[in-house]
Structure formats: C-alpha cells, structure tokens
Amino acid sequence: MDVNIYVLVALILLLGFIFGRLLRKVGLTSVLAYLFAGIIIGPVLKFTTPTQFDAVVTAITLAFVAYTIGLSFSFGFLKKMGKKIVIILIAEVLITSLVVGIFIYLLTKNLPLSLILASLAPATAPAGTIAVLRDFRSKGILTDVSVAIVGLDDAAAIIIYSVGIVSVKTLLEGKASVASSFIYPAWDILGAIALGGLIGVVLSYSTKRAHLSSDHIFVICIIAAILSWGLAEMINVSPILTCMILGATVINLNVHVGNRSNELLDTIMTPIFILFFAVIGMKVDFSQFVTIWTVVIMYCLGRSAGKVLGCSIGGMLSKSEPKITKYLGFALFDQAGVAVGLALLAAHELSGYGLGALIITLMATTTALFQLFAPLGIQYAVKKTGEATA
Questions:
Q1: What was the pLDDT predicted at 44?
Q2: Residue 370 DSSP symbol
C-alpha cells in the first residue's frame, strides 16, 4: 500500500519510540522494538517505501556506524590492547566464520548461502554487550577484554564481509578466474583503505588549524562520511570499510575533530537507527519461515559454538588468564547493528540472485533470538568470573 513518505517516516519513528520504551522497561533491547515497528508497518499493514528511500537510509546509517567504529581505533587504544587481544580476536573471528559456514553447508549444501552467512557471523553488538556489563557494574580482566573485542569484532566483520560478498558473487556468476578470485577482493579492500585514508588525511589536516565550532565539525564529519560512501560505490570498493578507515585516520591525525564528531553523531543516531531497523523489519518475509527455521537454528548454534571455541583457542594460544579462556565467548553472543546492516547490504548486492529476502529474514530472525538470550550469556560470564559487582 502506497502512503505519503513523510507520514510513513513519522509513523515509523513514533512506533519505534513507543515500542522502544516498552521493551526497555522489561529489560530488552530497543533494536527489537525498531524491528517490530518495521514488521507492523510492512508485513502487517502492507505499507511500502520507495527503493531509493531504503538505499539512502541504509547507506547513511552504515556510513555513520562505520565512521564511529573507526574513531575507536586510536594508536593509544591499539597499543593498550596488546598482542593477546589480537590473537584472541583473530581466532574468534575466523573460527566463528568457519563453524557457521560448515554448519550451514552441511544442512543446506548451498555454498553461496553458507559463505555469506559465515561472513556475517563474527560481528558482535558493542552497545548491547556494554549495556549488560554496565548493568552488572562488571569490573575485571574479562570485562576489559570483552569491551576491546566487541569494538574490534565489527571492524574484522567488515573486512571478512568485503571478501565474502565478492567470493559469493564470483560463485553465483560462474566465474573463477584469477582476477575474480584475487584481484577484485584485493581492490575492494585495498581500494577502500586508500580512499578512506586519503579523505581522512585531507579532512584532518584541513581542519587542524581552523577554529571550528561544534556545528561546523558536525557538518564536516557528515559530509566526509557520506562522500566516502558515495565515492566508494562509484569506484566499486567497500563503502563500509572506506568509512571505517576514514574514522581511524581522523582520530589519529586530528583527535579533537575525531572525538567531537563522535559525540555529535551520537546525538542523532537514535532516529536514524529507528528508520534503519524498521526498513529491515519491513523486508522480513514471513512466508519463508517454514523453510528456514532449521537454518536459523543451525546458524545460532554454529555462531554460539564458534564464539566459545574461538575464544578458548585464542585464549590458549595467547596464554591468557583461565577466566578468559573459559568464559569470554559467552560474553560475545550479542548480534545487532553491524551484522543486520551488512545483511541488508548483502541483500542489495545479491538481489539479482534470489538471496536478498532470504538473507534479511534469516538475519532479522537470528538477531531477535540473540537479543533475547545474549544478555544471559554475558550475565553467566561475569558472574562465573566474579566480576559482577551489582
């Protein structure tokens, strides 16, 4: 059903706001509320949005999210993190992807679907994880490592997704040349690093000696993030990785602009997230639930097992404390923003291959499930390690 776009946007924001407040009162994340608002408006009421609206909301949201993720990677933070964190991160990300890919392939024998779900699986939701840790006033080594890992997980997930999406398109198009197998993924990643770094350098040095007000910084960072996304699409490199590199460059070359832009962007993210997750909810296809419930279960089991196993192996390889090896994986179950955002991005990229609606429905469903039981995993980890003080 067609409806005036301005009325539709207002309705989405209103329902997201109301449902968000209701769910927060019972201890659930607002992300579920935003998804639910989209389901009410789309599958239930049958309202539709223009394709361009969905694309713009997705691009702007992911551009800002990737930029703010990049802003967390200052040299000081990376140095403080240490070698142990890097080893655990690599093991956790790779093993989670591997386990999910194997589980899904054994069930479906669908290699493209297995690869795309494997590339989406590592991302952990920082906001939800940190919210639970704060709720329990958790303090200690497990808490510190959890916060560091969830900040880096999304960056690693973006890189893995960049490789995975190109590999899946190569399979679906039936091409297996050296160019498609190596050069295209390399260009997708290295081109994004070069573009994001270049824009970040220009932004950092052009604003370094200028006396900019908060309004000016706000406008400039929005321009830089959206411009980076648009130019990345034009030259066929990863837009989300480009924006992440932009943020990492800015925070290391111009700390004032980086920190201030992070604070300012945070003030507008709630309505943007409402629209973004509602767009996801509107695309959920309930008619596919009958055929995908086994895939949903296998994905959740594979991702959970991969997180626990990966952190255990990473902990042993890095000679970390026993509490890290045993319990860190349970603190990393949460799945939300970046995973769902990458799923929507993948759906757009694979829309011509019949996988778009399936991927969105799978990720929306599994995100809802992880939002329900991930807090229990985090609670279990901090209580078993004695780091919960509330």
A1: 83
A2: H
Residue-wise pLDDT tens digits, 47-62: 877 778 888 888 888 8
Q: Residue 153: in which H helix or E strand, if any?
A: helix 141-173
Look up residue 262 and give its two tokens.
């992070």
Under-50 pLDDT residues of the chain: 176
CA-based nearest residue to 83, from 333, 330, 329, 315: 315
What's the length of the chain?
390
Placement of tokens 């902990």 in the chain: 315
CA distance 281 to 360: 9
For 71-105, letters b (16+ CB in 10 Å) and e give: bbbeeeebeebeebbebbbbbbbbbbbbbbbebbb
272 exposed, middle or buried (CB, 10 Å; 0-12, 13-18, 19+)? middle
The CATH architecture assigned to 5-384 reads Up-down Bundle (1.20)
Tokens of 99: 């386990």
The pLDDT tens digits of the residues spanning 310-355 come to: 989 988 888 878 888 888 888 888 776 667 777 777 777 777 667 7
**Two tokens at 1?**
């059903």
d(CA 329, CA 313): 10
Q: At what angle do helices 51-71 and 214-234 cross, to 10 degrees?
A: 120
Torsion of CA 107, 113, 118, 119, to 10 degrees: 180
Q: Where are the domains of the chain?
A: 5-384
Question: Could you give the angle at the alpha carbon of 89 between the alpha carbons of 171 and 189, nearest 5°?
Answer: 40
Average model confidence (pLDDT) across the chain: 81
Q: For residue 76, report the phi and psi dihedrals to the nearest 5 degrees.
A: -60, -40
What tokens appear for 56 in the block? 């713009």
